[in-house]
Amino acid sequence: MIDVHNLSKSFTLHNQGGAVIPVMASAALHVGPGECVGLIGQSGSGKSTLMRMIHGNYLPGAGSIRIAGVQLAGAQPRAVMALRRNTLGYVSQFLRVLPRVPTVDVVAEPLRILGVPRDVAQARAECLLWRLNIPRRLWSLSPTTFSGGEQQRVNIARGFVHPFPVLLLDEPTASLDARNRDVVLTLIAEAKARGAAILGIFHDEAARDAVCDRLVDVTGFTPGRTS
Ligand SMILES: Nc1ncnc2c1ncn2[C@@H]1O[C@H](COP(=O)(O)OP(=O)(O)OP(=O)(O)O)[C@@H](O)[C@H]1O
């Protein structure tokens, strides 16, 4: 489902004399259906950069990224958007929403975009908000004023509302208490059970151990490394 081959990435710092910073070379990984793979490696080793390339936010310098058979590296923006709509879910730590949109609509939106009827999409959104312990009185309000943990849970609900075949999770349990962390781990386990391929960054080792089948150390993709 996720196949990365020979991926390289450098950043060019245009505001610092065009300095080129090589971050990654010859990166390779595979995540199959029903599998959760955790990215590990010291701070600055390139975990987020790899995740952003796989989500299509950063362009790789070279190499191949196939998501459910679709070549992402070099794909047209329209193809990337279609992949994100149907196949590739992404849960980041931070919620980005338009102001004044009610929480339940924020969560239901990925389903609405796919043409799911409003009542069905809202019911699924409400179920996730309930499971993630977002109080019902907040469902009709915009999440822009919610606490950090509440916003993260809204983001998780939005990420899990459609049964994406491929999921990218960037610190999905970062600011959650133990009770909500367990809910998220259950959602991940359920996604694996229905066959989703999941790639995650989890700084919380207990969470990582609970859901990851394998770990990939991105330090092994540091440019100039001989191993
Ligand atoms: N947009 C960018 N422009 C320039 N350099 C960048 C950019 N994004 C990341 N980098 C650099 O790439 C390297 C890898 O960063 P990245 O955020 O991927 O590491 P990480 O392993 O996710 O770190 P952490 O665990 O601290 O979040 C760092 O040296 C960082 O400074």
From TrEMBL:
<dbReference type="InterPro" id="IPR017871">
    <property type="entry name" value="ABC_transporter-like_CS"/>
</dbReference>
<keyword id="KW-0547">Nucleotide-binding</keyword>
<keyword id="KW-0456">Lyase</keyword>
<dbReference type="InterPro" id="IPR012701">
    <property type="entry name" value="CP_lyase_PhnL"/>
</dbReference>
<dbReference type="InterPro" id="IPR003439">
    <property type="entry name" value="ABC_transporter-like_ATP-bd"/>
</dbReference>
<protein>
    <submittedName>
        <fullName>Phosphonate C-P lyase system protein PhnL</fullName>
    </submittedName>
</protein>
<feature type="domain" description="ABC transporter">
    <location>
        <begin position="2"/>
        <end position="219"/>
    </location>
</feature>
<comment type="similarity">
    <text>Belongs to the ABC transporter superfamily.</text>
</comment>
<dbReference type="GO" id="GO:0016829">
    <property type="term" value="F:lyase activity"/>
</dbReference>
<dbReference type="InterPro" id="IPR003593">
    <property type="entry name" value="AAA+_ATPase"/>
</dbReference>
<dbReference type="Pfam" id="PF00005">
    <property type="entry name" value="ABC_tran"/>
</dbReference>
<keyword id="KW-0067">ATP-binding</keyword>
<dbReference type="InterPro" id="IPR027417">
    <property type="entry name" value="P-loop_NTPase"/>
</dbReference>
